[in-house]
User: What shape does this take?
Amino acid sequence: MNLSQNQPIGVIDSGVGGISVLKCMRELLPNEYFIYVADSKYAPYGEKTNVEITSRVLAAFEFLNKQYVKSVVVACNTATASSIQILRDEFNYPIIGMEPAVKPASNISTNKIIGILATSGTLSSAKFSALLTHHETDIHFITQPCFGLVELVEKADLESAELQELLKKYIDPLLKKDIDTLVLGCTHYSFLKPAIRKLIPNHIHIVDTGNAVANHLKHVLTEKNLLNKSGTLGVTDFWSNSLDQNADQVIKKLWSQNLNTFSYKGIWA
Ligand code: DGL
Assistant: This one.
C-alpha cells in the first residue's frame, strides 16, 4: 500500500476520552489532518469482552479505511489491551496504541508506591499484567478499577457532586496507602485531572499518557516519511455515534481549543 504525507490520521476511542490524547497530538502536529471517531453508543468498553471490543474497533477501522488514513491511533487503553495485535496483523499502516504510564510513573515516584486508575478491562488484561510484572521488583502498585467515571465524562460531567463522590471513593483508599504518584490509565480520566487535583495533596504526581503518545506518533511518522509538511494548518473532523442529542456540544466542551479548524461531522455508524 502506498501511503502519502497528506492523508489523514485516524484516532479512535470508546467515546470522547481519546480527545484528551488528540489535543496533545493536535498541538505537536499542527499540519496533520485528524479524523476522530467516538464509539460512544457502545461505551464503556471497560466491562466488555475482548471479542466485543475487537468487533467495535474493527468497525471504526473500517470507517477510517474509507477515508484513506495513513495511520490510526487507538487512543484507548482498554481497546489497546484487547485488540492491538489483531489490528496490527490486519492493517498495513502504522497503528499506535497506548498503555497506562507505569514506566514514567516508576521513574517519577520517590517512595515507590504508585496508584493506578483504569478500567476493569485494562487492569484484568494480559498486556497490563505483563507491564506490571516488568516493573514490579521494587515498586508497589495499587490498582483501582473506576466503574462509572467513563459514563460521566461521556456527558462532559467533569465536576458534579456525583463525580466528586465517585472519585473520592476510588482515590481515598490509595491515599491511605501513601501513594506519591497516581497514573490515569484511561483516556477519559485525563479530563478529570482538575477534579482529582482538588482531592489529593500537591506532592502527589498525576501521570497520563497523551504527550507520550503524541511524541511516539511524530516519531513513527517521521521515520516512515509520512509527516505532513504542507505548512498549512490541519483540520480536525469529529464523528460520533452517540445517541445524545448534544453530542457535538459535549465534544466542543472537551475539545476547548481553537474551533477554526474544528468540524463536527455527525453520526458514523
Ligand atoms: N477511554 C478508554 C480507555 O482509555 C476506555 C474507557 C471505556 O470505554 O471503558 O481505556
User: Anything to note?
Assistant: The first helix runs from residue 19 to 28. The pocket of D-glutamic acid is lined by residues 13-15, 17, 43-46, 76-78, 119, 122, 150, 186-188 (CB under 6 Å). The chain has a mean pLDDT of 96. The two ends are 26 Å apart (CA to CA).
